[in-house]
């Protein structure tokens, strides 16, 4: 087993803390590597490197910064396959799914290459006699990204392309469960011409995160992960005077109206609930059919498709759904199905009975697709984010009851309605209190030039990721008011100055 290192100042750098942890192959259940876990002192040293790189990088013309990112983008296109394989080896997702993840991340690089346009300022001539005003956005300094296991390439790419394009230097603390993708990204950024120290990776766990939160040279923190940790990051980071955007967990509902195309809705639910083994913050985990007749017809369509799901390792091109990420997570997901059964829900298809018989994968963290009917609001399987291939069905008699259900949940990341009725679709889009909305689109992940973020307990802080929200998060505004000698006043002014 080799130890997965940090990446500091353009070079892979072994850890010195003496602490490390195993990194598993979820498809086999075997530990394949270890990852270094940084001490607070190591984190402080990385931040110092990033701080030293900031003055020159922030003064580099935005066009030149963008060209480096453009070269990185070309490398990503060429080596997408290699990155996807590194993701699958530690996360477990299928190869095609990993390729999709890389593509969605790459789109943020494409957006960031437009930095010279995004950073254009504003100018007002003659705001007073002989006085002009202009506003510009400037970088913050060292910013940090703390990312979850479920998108080891895409979620970092929600952050650093925009941060770097805006002139910040970056310290990434990836998930310790799948840390390798971050090292490929770091090496390719260096190859693209990024100066040393501008992008760094520090591997680690809570100790590293706490060191970033308390280091005064870290000016902003972008976090994506579970809600309790997002809340902690936001509270601690803002108390330290930092900007924080912290995206948390989700429980995404999809309403199926009686006029919906049920074949389309069922097939959308299959991908949205079981793709990536349900380990997506935009996965649909609650189907809300309106009327019992719709529920019965929908379940009839879903059951054979769930039973036919090809669950297997990423090494098998036929696999449609891979394993869960760890043995602990598998136990947790199974526990939620046990709990649903004990609380009186009906297990329609039971993923707990799935056995993986592919040679070498018998001990992988596999579970089959699970459909649970007659779920009610008070059940734990409804209230909690399960983050596995488990679809709950909550039946509702009418549209308003379905909307009330969504509004009663603490999470508000994404949601969807399937309908042919334009009025229903329009009022859903306008009135629903959720950050990302799909109309006949099950996973409405905004494109890179829009911004990604939920509402309520799915986000802490007020800036979504990427798009212009990302540019605003990673810059601060400066407004300069200018007067030249012909407009100057000779007399001292002791009253509140006014222009005009
Ligand atoms: P997690 O919260 O366990 O970990 C996220 C990051 O926080 C990791 O880098 C981890 O090392 C660090 N961390 C973990 N425990 C910590 C602690 N006690 N103190 C400080 N740092 C800590 O999340 P995860 O299991 O890796 O990812 C899954 C979660 O992420 C799900 O809840 C999912 O909904 C959420 N997620 C949300 C979005 C979104 O955009 N809202 C996107 C992807 C994932």
From TrEMBL:
InterPro entries: Ald_DH/histidinol_DH (IPR016161), Ald_DH_C (IPR016163), Ald_DH_CS_CYS (IPR016160), Ald_DH_N (IPR016162), Aldehyde_DH_dom (IPR015590), MeMal-semiAld_DH (IPR010061)
Skewed-composition ranges (Polar residues): 10-21
Alphabetical list of PANTHER family matching this protein: MALONATE-SEMIALDEHYDE DEHYDROGENASE
One MF annotation (Gene Ontology) recorded for this entry: methylmalonate-semialdehyde dehydrogenase (acylating, NAD) activity
Species of origin: Meridianimarinicoccus aquatilis
BP terms from Gene Ontology: L-valine catabolic process; thymine catabolic process
EC number of this enzyme: 1.2.1.27
UniProtKB keywords: NAD, Oxidoreductase
Positions of the Aldehyde dehydrogenase domain: 17-479
NCBIfam families: MMSDH
Enzyme class of the recorded protein, top EC level: oxidoreductase
Stretches the record annotates as Disordered: 1-21
Segments passing through the bilayer: none
Name of the molecule in the record: methylmalonate-semialdehyde dehydrogenase (CoA acylating)
Gene3D superfamilies per record: Aldehyde Dehydrogenase, Chain A, domain 1, Aldehyde Dehydrogenase, Chain A, domain 2
């Amino acid at each position: 087993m080799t130890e997965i290192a940090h990446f500091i100042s353009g070079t892979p750098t072994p850890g010195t803390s003496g602490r490390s942890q195993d990194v598993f192959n979820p498809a086999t259940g075997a530990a394949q590597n270890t990852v270094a876990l940084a001490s607070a002192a190591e984190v402080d040293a990385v931040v110092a490197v990033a701080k030293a790189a900031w003055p020159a990088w922030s003064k580099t013309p935005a066009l030149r910064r963008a060209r480096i990112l453009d070269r990185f983008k070309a490398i990503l296109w060429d080596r997408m396959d290699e990155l996807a394989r590194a993701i699958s080896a530690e996360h477990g997702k299928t190869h095609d799914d990993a390729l999709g993840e890389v593509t969605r991340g790459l789109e943020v690089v494409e957006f960031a290459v437009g930095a010279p346009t995004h950073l254009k300022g504003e100018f007002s001539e003659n705001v007073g006699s002989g006085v002009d005003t202009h506003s510009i956005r400037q970088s913050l300094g060292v910013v940090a990204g703390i990312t979850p296991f479920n998108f080891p390439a895409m979620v970092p790419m929600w952050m650093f392309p925009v941060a770097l394009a805006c002139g910040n230097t970056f310290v990434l603390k990836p998930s310790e469960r799948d840390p390798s993708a971050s090292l490929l990204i770091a090496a390719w950024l260096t190859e693209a011409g990024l100066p040393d120290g501008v992008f760094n990776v520090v591997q680690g766990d809570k100790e590293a995160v706490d060191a970033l939160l308390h280091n005064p040279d870290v000016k902003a923190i972008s976090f994506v992960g579970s809600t309790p940790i997002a809340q902690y990051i936001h509270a601690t980071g803002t108390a330290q005077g930092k900007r924080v955007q912290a995206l948390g967990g989700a429980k995404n509902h999809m309403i199926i109206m009686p006029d919906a195309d049920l074949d389309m809705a069922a097939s959308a639910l299959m991908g949205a609930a079981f793709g990536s083994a349900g380990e997506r913050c935009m996965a649909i985990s609650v189907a809300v059919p309106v009327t019992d007749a719709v529920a019965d017809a929908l379940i009839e369509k879903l059951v054979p498709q769930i039973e036919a799901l090809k669950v297997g390792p990423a090494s098998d091109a036929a696999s449609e759904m891979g394993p869960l990420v760890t043995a602990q997570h598998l136990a947790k997901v199974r526990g939620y199905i046990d709990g649903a059964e004990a609380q009186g829900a009906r297990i329609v298809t039971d993923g707990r009975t799935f056995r993986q018989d592919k040679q070498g994968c018998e001990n992988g963290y596999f579970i089959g697709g699970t459909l649970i009917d007659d779920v009610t609001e008070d059940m734990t399987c409804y209230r909690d984010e399960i983050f596995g291939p488990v679809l709950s069905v909550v039946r509702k008699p009418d549209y308003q009851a379905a909307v009330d259900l969504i509004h009663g949940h603490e999470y508000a990341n994404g949601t969807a309605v399937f309908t042919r009725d334009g009025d229903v679709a329009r009022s859903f889009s306008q009135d629903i209190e959720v950050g990302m909305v799909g109309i006949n689109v099950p996973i409405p992940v905004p494109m890179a030039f829009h911004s990604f973020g939920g509402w309520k307990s799915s986000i802490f802080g007020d800036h979504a990721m990427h798009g212009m929200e990302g540019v605003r998060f990673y810059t601060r505004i400066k407004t300069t008011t200018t007067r030249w000698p012909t407009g100057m006043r000779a007399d001292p002014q002791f009253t509140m100055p006014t222009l005009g």
